[in-house]
Protein backbone atom coordinates (compact mmCIF):
# COMPACT_ATOMS: atom_id res chain seq x y z
CA UNK A 1 0.00 0.00 0.00
CA UNK A 2 1.33 3.46 -0.91
CA UNK A 3 0.87 6.69 1.01
CA UNK A 4 0.75 10.13 -0.48
CA UNK A 5 3.74 12.16 0.84
CA UNK A 6 1.55 15.23 1.23
CA UNK A 7 -0.95 13.38 3.40
CA UNK A 8 1.87 11.87 5.42
CA UNK A 9 3.40 15.22 6.11
CA UNK A 10 -0.02 16.64 7.02
CA UNK A 11 -0.62 13.77 9.42
CA UNK A 12 2.74 14.29 11.08
CA UNK A 13 2.07 18.00 11.40
CA UNK A 14 -1.37 17.34 12.91
CA UNK A 15 0.11 14.91 15.45
CA UNK A 16 2.79 17.43 16.38
CA UNK A 17 0.25 20.24 16.88
CA UNK A 18 -2.07 17.97 18.86
CA UNK A 19 0.75 16.91 21.16
CA UNK A 20 1.65 20.55 21.80
CA UNK A 21 -1.99 21.34 22.53
CA UNK A 22 -2.31 18.44 24.95
CA UNK A 23 0.96 19.42 26.62
CA UNK A 24 -0.21 23.01 27.01
CA UNK A 25 -3.57 21.89 28.40
CA UNK A 26 -1.84 19.62 30.90
CA UNK A 27 0.48 22.45 31.91
CA UNK A 28 -2.50 24.74 32.50
CA UNK A 29 -4.45 22.19 34.54
CA UNK A 30 -3.18 23.43 37.89
CA UNK A 31 -5.30 22.32 40.86
CA UNK A 32 -6.98 25.22 42.64
CA UNK A 33 -8.90 24.93 45.90
CA UNK A 34 -11.75 27.47 46.20
CA UNK A 35 -12.80 27.90 49.84
CA UNK A 36 -16.48 28.75 50.39
CA UNK A 37 -16.95 31.51 53.03
CA UNK A 38 -18.29 30.34 56.37
CA UNK A 39 -20.68 33.30 56.84
CA UNK A 40 -23.82 33.47 54.71
CA UNK A 41 -23.60 36.51 52.41
CA UNK A 42 -25.33 36.46 48.98
CA UNK A 43 -22.90 39.01 47.55
CA UNK A 44 -19.79 37.02 48.59
CA UNK A 45 -21.49 33.79 47.44
CA UNK A 46 -21.86 35.39 44.01
CA UNK A 47 -18.13 36.21 43.97
CA UNK A 48 -17.40 32.61 45.05
CA UNK A 49 -19.37 31.13 42.14
CA UNK A 50 -17.96 33.63 39.62
CA UNK A 51 -14.37 32.87 40.66
CA UNK A 52 -14.94 29.11 40.37
CA UNK A 53 -16.55 29.51 36.95
CA UNK A 54 -13.79 31.80 35.68
CA UNK A 55 -11.11 29.33 36.83
CA UNK A 56 -12.82 26.44 35.03
CA UNK A 57 -13.15 28.58 31.92
CA UNK A 58 -9.36 29.01 31.93
CA UNK A 59 -8.75 25.24 32.21
CA UNK A 60 -7.89 25.09 35.91
CA UNK A 61 -8.85 22.01 37.92
CA UNK A 62 -11.19 23.45 40.58
CA UNK A 63 -12.09 21.84 43.89
CA UNK A 64 -14.32 23.34 46.58
CA UNK A 65 -14.05 23.17 50.35
CA UNK A 66 -16.04 24.73 53.19
CA UNK A 67 -14.17 27.30 55.30
CA UNK A 68 -13.76 26.51 59.00
CA UNK A 69 -13.25 30.19 59.91
CA UNK A 70 -14.33 33.57 58.51
CA UNK A 71 -10.76 34.49 57.58
CA UNK A 72 -8.11 32.09 56.20
CA UNK A 73 -4.72 32.72 57.82
CA UNK A 74 -1.27 31.85 56.45
CA UNK A 75 -1.20 28.71 58.59
CA UNK A 76 -4.69 27.67 57.42
CA UNK A 77 -3.70 28.13 53.77
CA UNK A 78 -0.48 26.15 54.24
CA UNK A 79 -2.38 23.29 55.91
CA UNK A 80 -5.03 23.23 53.16
CA UNK A 81 -2.45 23.20 50.35
CA UNK A 82 -0.38 20.51 52.07
CA UNK A 83 -3.40 18.30 52.83
CA UNK A 84 -5.06 18.55 49.42
CA UNK A 85 -1.94 18.80 47.25
CA UNK A 86 -3.45 21.78 45.41
CA UNK A 87 -1.24 24.30 43.62
CA UNK A 88 -3.21 27.26 45.02
CA UNK A 89 -6.26 28.13 47.07
CA UNK A 90 -8.66 31.07 46.87
CA UNK A 91 -10.48 32.53 49.89
CA UNK A 92 -12.79 35.49 50.54
CA UNK A 93 -13.18 38.22 53.17
CA UNK A 94 -16.05 40.70 53.56
CA UNK A 95 -16.07 43.73 55.86
CA UNK A 96 -19.01 46.06 55.23
CA UNK A 97 -18.71 47.42 51.69
CA UNK A 98 -15.18 46.02 51.24
CA UNK A 99 -14.75 42.62 49.56
CA UNK A 100 -11.38 40.85 49.27
CA UNK A 101 -10.35 37.84 47.17
CA UNK A 102 -7.16 36.19 48.46
CA UNK A 103 -5.04 33.92 46.26
CA UNK A 104 -2.58 31.67 48.12
CA UNK A 105 -0.02 30.01 45.83
CA UNK A 106 2.02 27.01 47.01
CA UNK A 107 5.78 27.55 46.88
CA UNK A 108 8.15 24.61 47.10
CA UNK A 109 9.96 24.56 50.45
CA UNK A 110 8.48 27.87 51.58
CA UNK A 111 5.29 29.40 52.94
CA UNK A 112 2.49 30.05 50.43
CA UNK A 113 2.64 33.37 48.63
CA UNK A 114 -0.33 35.70 49.02
CA UNK A 115 -1.90 37.90 46.33
CA UNK A 116 -5.04 39.98 46.87
CA UNK A 117 -7.70 41.78 44.89
CA UNK A 118 -9.82 44.30 46.81
CA UNK A 119 -13.10 45.99 45.90
CA UNK A 120 -14.14 48.99 47.99
CA UNK A 121 -17.84 48.96 47.10
CA UNK A 122 -20.63 46.52 46.33
CA UNK A 123 -21.70 47.23 42.79
CA UNK A 124 -23.24 44.70 40.35
CA UNK A 125 -20.05 44.40 38.27
CA UNK A 126 -17.76 43.65 41.24
CA UNK A 127 -18.16 39.81 41.27
CA UNK A 128 -17.23 39.60 37.57
CA UNK A 129 -14.29 41.99 37.94
CA UNK A 130 -12.95 40.25 41.06
CA UNK A 131 -13.23 36.85 39.36
CA UNK A 132 -11.24 38.06 36.34
CA UNK A 133 -8.69 39.69 38.58
CA UNK A 134 -8.31 36.56 40.72
CA UNK A 135 -7.57 34.45 37.62
CA UNK A 136 -5.06 37.04 36.43
CA UNK A 137 -3.27 37.08 39.81
CA UNK A 138 -3.25 33.28 39.95
CA UNK A 139 -1.91 32.93 36.42
CA UNK A 140 0.89 35.43 37.00
CA UNK A 141 1.80 33.86 40.36
CA UNK A 142 1.93 30.31 38.97
CA UNK A 143 4.04 31.49 36.04
CA UNK A 144 6.47 33.03 38.53
CA UNK A 145 6.57 30.07 40.95
CA UNK A 146 6.75 27.37 38.24
CA UNK A 147 6.88 28.67 34.62
CA UNK A 148 4.42 26.92 32.32
CA UNK A 149 4.44 26.26 28.62
CA UNK A 150 1.26 28.14 27.75
CA UNK A 151 0.52 31.04 30.10
CA UNK A 152 -3.02 32.37 30.05
CA UNK A 153 -3.63 36.11 29.88
CA UNK A 154 -7.31 36.84 30.65
CA UNK A 155 -8.89 40.19 29.85
CA UNK A 156 -9.49 42.30 32.96
CA UNK A 157 -12.58 44.51 33.08
CA UNK A 158 -11.59 47.97 34.39
CA UNK A 159 -13.05 48.98 37.75
CA UNK A 160 -12.37 52.26 39.48
CA UNK A 161 -12.59 50.80 42.98
CA UNK A 162 -10.39 47.71 42.41
CA UNK A 163 -6.97 47.43 44.03
CA UNK A 164 -4.50 44.57 43.41
CA UNK A 165 -1.43 43.80 45.49
CA UNK A 166 1.17 41.08 45.70
CA UNK A 167 1.76 41.61 49.42
CA UNK A 168 -0.42 40.87 52.42
CA UNK A 169 -2.05 44.06 53.69
CA UNK A 170 -4.13 43.98 56.84
CA UNK A 171 -7.72 42.74 56.40
CA UNK A 172 -10.31 45.53 56.18
CA UNK A 173 -11.26 46.69 59.66
CA UNK A 174 -14.89 46.89 60.81
CA UNK A 175 -14.03 50.09 62.75
CA UNK A 176 -14.39 53.60 61.36
CA UNK A 177 -13.31 56.93 62.90
CA UNK A 178 -14.94 60.18 61.76
CA UNK A 179 -13.58 63.65 62.61
CA UNK A 180 -15.37 66.81 61.49
CA UNK A 181 -17.77 69.55 62.49
CA UNK A 182 -21.50 70.00 63.04
CA UNK A 183 -23.77 73.01 62.51
CA UNK A 184 -26.89 72.98 64.71
CA UNK A 185 -29.66 75.26 63.48
CA UNK A 186 -31.22 77.60 66.03
CA UNK A 187 -34.62 78.21 64.46
CA UNK A 188 -36.65 81.28 65.38
CA UNK A 189 -35.46 81.48 69.00
CA UNK A 190 -31.68 81.12 68.90
CA UNK A 191 -28.93 81.53 66.35
CA UNK A 192 -27.15 78.50 64.92
CA UNK A 193 -24.33 76.81 66.83
CA UNK A 194 -21.15 75.32 65.33
CA UNK A 195 -18.50 73.03 66.80
CA UNK A 196 -16.43 69.85 66.40
CA UNK A 197 -17.81 66.31 66.21
CA UNK A 198 -16.15 62.91 66.50
CA UNK A 199 -17.73 59.55 65.64
CA UNK A 200 -16.65 55.95 66.22
CA UNK A 201 -18.57 53.41 64.11
CA UNK A 202 -18.47 49.62 63.90
CA UNK A 203 -19.82 47.64 60.96
CA UNK A 204 -22.26 44.97 62.15
CA UNK A 205 -23.18 43.53 58.74
CA UNK A 206 -22.95 44.56 55.08
CA UNK A 207 -26.04 46.74 55.63
CA UNK A 208 -25.93 47.81 59.30
CA UNK A 209 -23.52 49.80 61.45
CA UNK A 210 -23.67 51.22 64.98
CA UNK A 211 -21.59 53.79 66.78
CA UNK A 212 -21.17 56.78 69.06
CA UNK A 213 -21.24 60.44 67.99
CA UNK A 214 -19.95 63.17 70.32
CA UNK A 215 -20.36 66.85 69.43
CA UNK A 216 -19.27 69.92 71.34
CA UNK A 217 -18.65 72.40 72.59
CA UNK A 218 -20.98 74.14 70.13
CA UNK A 219 -20.75 77.93 70.11
CA UNK A 220 -22.78 80.70 68.49
CA UNK A 221 -26.30 80.10 69.80
CA UNK A 222 -27.63 83.39 71.18
CA UNK A 223 -30.97 85.02 71.94
CA UNK A 224 -31.43 88.74 72.60
CA UNK A 225 -34.45 90.29 74.29
CA UNK A 226 -35.45 93.83 75.16
CA UNK A 227 -33.72 93.88 78.54
CA UNK A 228 -31.35 90.88 78.45
CA UNK A 229 -29.65 88.28 76.26
CA UNK A 230 -28.41 84.72 76.66
CA UNK A 231 -25.45 82.88 75.14
CA UNK A 232 -25.50 79.07 74.97
CA UNK A 233 -22.71 76.52 74.92
CA UNK A 234 -24.04 73.10 73.90
CA UNK A 235 -22.85 69.54 73.52
CA UNK A 236 -24.45 66.20 72.75
CA UNK A 237 -23.70 62.51 72.71
CA UNK A 238 -25.67 60.03 70.60
CA UNK A 239 -25.71 56.29 70.17
CA UNK A 240 -26.67 55.80 66.54
CA UNK A 241 -27.61 53.05 64.11
CA UNK A 242 -27.29 53.34 60.31
CA UNK A 243 -28.64 51.25 57.43
CA UNK A 244 -27.24 51.30 53.88
CA UNK A 245 -29.63 52.56 51.20
CA UNK A 246 -27.29 51.88 48.29
CA UNK A 247 -23.75 52.14 46.94
CA UNK A 248 -22.62 53.36 43.54
CA UNK A 249 -18.87 52.91 43.04
CA UNK A 250 -17.25 55.51 45.35
CA UNK A 251 -20.61 56.89 46.58
CA UNK A 252 -22.76 55.38 49.34
CA UNK A 253 -25.92 56.55 51.11
CA UNK A 254 -27.29 55.53 54.50
CA UNK A 255 -30.24 56.25 56.74
CA UNK A 256 -29.29 56.89 60.36
CA UNK A 257 -31.00 57.49 63.71
CA UNK A 258 -29.55 58.41 67.09
CA UNK A 259 -30.63 58.65 70.72
CA UNK A 260 -28.74 60.24 73.58
CA UNK A 261 -28.45 63.41 75.63
CA UNK A 262 -27.78 67.11 75.02
CA UNK A 263 -26.02 69.47 77.41
CA UNK A 264 -26.90 73.17 77.61
CA UNK A 265 -25.02 75.89 79.47
CA UNK A 266 -26.62 79.35 79.64
CA UNK A 267 -24.75 82.59 80.32
CA UNK A 268 -27.18 85.54 80.70
CA UNK A 269 -26.44 89.21 80.11
CA UNK A 270 -28.50 92.20 81.22
CA UNK A 271 -28.87 95.25 79.01
CA UNK A 272 -27.07 98.38 80.17
CA UNK A 273 -29.23 100.54 82.44
CA UNK A 274 -31.53 97.72 83.60
CA UNK A 275 -31.14 97.43 87.38
CA UNK A 276 -34.25 95.43 88.32
CA UNK A 277 -32.88 92.06 87.13
CA UNK A 278 -29.52 90.39 87.36
CA UNK A 279 -27.61 88.14 84.92
CA UNK A 280 -28.37 84.43 85.19
CA UNK A 281 -26.21 81.34 84.65
CA UNK A 282 -27.72 77.91 84.33
CA UNK A 283 -26.96 74.47 82.91
CA UNK A 284 -28.72 71.16 82.42
CA UNK A 285 -29.27 67.99 80.38
CA UNK A 286 -32.12 66.88 78.14
CA UNK A 287 -32.88 63.79 76.07
CA UNK A 288 -31.99 64.16 72.38
CA UNK A 289 -33.06 62.14 69.37
CA UNK A 290 -32.08 62.51 65.68
CA UNK A 291 -32.95 60.94 62.33
CA UNK A 292 -31.53 61.70 58.90
CA UNK A 293 -29.47 60.66 55.91
CA UNK A 294 -25.73 60.30 55.43
CA UNK A 295 -23.77 60.35 52.15
CA UNK A 296 -20.10 59.33 51.86
CA UNK A 297 -17.60 59.52 48.99
CA UNK A 298 -14.54 57.23 49.17
CA UNK A 299 -11.30 58.96 48.16
CA UNK A 300 -9.10 55.89 48.86
CA UNK A 301 -9.39 52.40 50.33
CA UNK A 302 -9.24 53.80 53.88
CA UNK A 303 -10.47 57.40 53.67
CA UNK A 304 -13.89 58.86 52.83
CA UNK A 305 -15.58 62.25 53.11
CA UNK A 306 -19.07 62.27 54.61
CA UNK A 307 -21.98 64.71 54.70
CA UNK A 308 -24.98 64.15 56.96
CA UNK A 309 -28.29 65.95 57.49
CA UNK A 310 -30.47 65.24 60.55
CA UNK A 311 -33.64 66.49 62.21
CA UNK A 312 -33.35 66.52 66.00
CA UNK A 313 -35.82 66.69 68.86
CA UNK A 314 -35.27 67.53 72.54
CA UNK A 315 -37.47 66.17 75.35
CA UNK A 316 -38.49 67.83 77.48
CA UNK A 317 -38.11 71.11 75.55
CA UNK A 318 -35.67 73.31 77.48
CA UNK A 319 -36.82 76.77 78.53
CA UNK A 320 -34.50 79.60 79.50
CA UNK A 321 -35.16 82.79 81.47
CA UNK A 322 -33.78 85.73 79.50
CA UNK A 323 -34.44 88.82 81.53
CA UNK A 324 -38.18 88.94 82.23
CA UNK A 325 -39.01 86.61 79.32
CA UNK A 326 -39.10 82.83 79.20
CA UNK A 327 -37.67 81.48 75.95
CA UNK A 328 -38.32 77.88 74.86
CA UNK A 329 -36.25 75.93 72.38
CA UNK A 330 -37.81 75.04 69.03
CA UNK A 331 -39.22 71.51 69.04
CA UNK A 332 -37.31 70.39 65.93
CA UNK A 333 -33.71 71.41 65.31
CA UNK A 334 -32.02 70.41 62.04
CA UNK A 335 -28.26 69.86 61.94
CA UNK A 336 -25.60 69.36 59.26
CA UNK A 337 -22.35 67.40 59.69
CA UNK A 338 -19.23 67.30 57.52
CA UNK A 339 -16.40 64.91 58.39
CA UNK A 340 -13.47 62.84 57.17
CA UNK A 341 -13.66 59.11 57.91
CA UNK A 342 -10.75 56.76 58.43
CA UNK A 343 -10.97 52.97 58.24
CA UNK A 344 -8.99 51.73 61.25
Could you tell me the radius of gyration in angstroms? 31 Å
**What is the end-to-end distance?**
81 Å
Helical content stands at 10-25%
Count the beta strands: 16
Could you name the CATH class of the largest domain? Mainly Beta
- Secondary-structure arrangement, i.e. CATH architecture of the largest domain: Beta Barrel
Assembly form of the protein: single chain
Tell the overall outline.
Answer: rod-shaped
Structural class based on helices, strands and sheet pairing: alpha+beta
For the biggest sheet, the summary is: 8 strands, antiparallel, barrel
Strand content: over 45%
Mean pLDDT over all positions = 79
Order of helices and strands: HEHEHEEEHEEEEEEEEEEE
Total number of domains: 2
Low-pLDDT stretches are 1-8, 13-28, 148-160, 164-171
Report the CATH topology name of the largest domain: Porin
What does the model show?
With 344 residues, the chain is of the alpha+beta class. It has 2 domains: 21-165, Rossmann fold (3-Layer(aba) Sandwich), CATH 3.40.50; 175-343, Beta Barrel (Porin), CATH 2.40.160.20. It has 4 helices and 16 strands. The protein has helices spanning 5-28, 42-57, 74-84, 126-145, and strands at 31-36, 61-66, 88-95, 98-107, 110-119, 162-165, 175-184, 193-203, 208-224, 228-248, 251-270, 281-298, 303-315, 319-322, 325-328, 332-343. The strands form 3 sheets. The chain has an 8-stranded antiparallel β-barrel with strand order 7-8-9-10-11-12-13-16. It has a 6-stranded mixed beta sheet with strand order 2-1-3-4-5-6, with helices on both faces. Strands 14-15 form a two-stranded antiparallel ribbon. β14 and β15 (325-328) form a beta hairpin. α2 (42-57) crosses α4. The protein is rod-shaped and about 95 Å long. 34% of the residues are buried. The model is unreliable at 1-8, 13-28, 148-160 and 164-171 (pLDDT under 50).
Amino acid sequence: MTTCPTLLRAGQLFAFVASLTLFGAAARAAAVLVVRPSASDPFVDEIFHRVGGELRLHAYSVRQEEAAAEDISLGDAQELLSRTGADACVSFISRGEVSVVRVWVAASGAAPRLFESVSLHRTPDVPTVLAARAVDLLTAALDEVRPRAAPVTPVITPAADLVATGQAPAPPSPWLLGIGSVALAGGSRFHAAVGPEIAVVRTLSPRLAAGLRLAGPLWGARHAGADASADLVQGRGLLHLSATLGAWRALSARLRAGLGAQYIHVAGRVAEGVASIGPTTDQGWTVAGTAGIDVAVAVSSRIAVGLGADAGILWPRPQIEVGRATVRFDQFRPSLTLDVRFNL
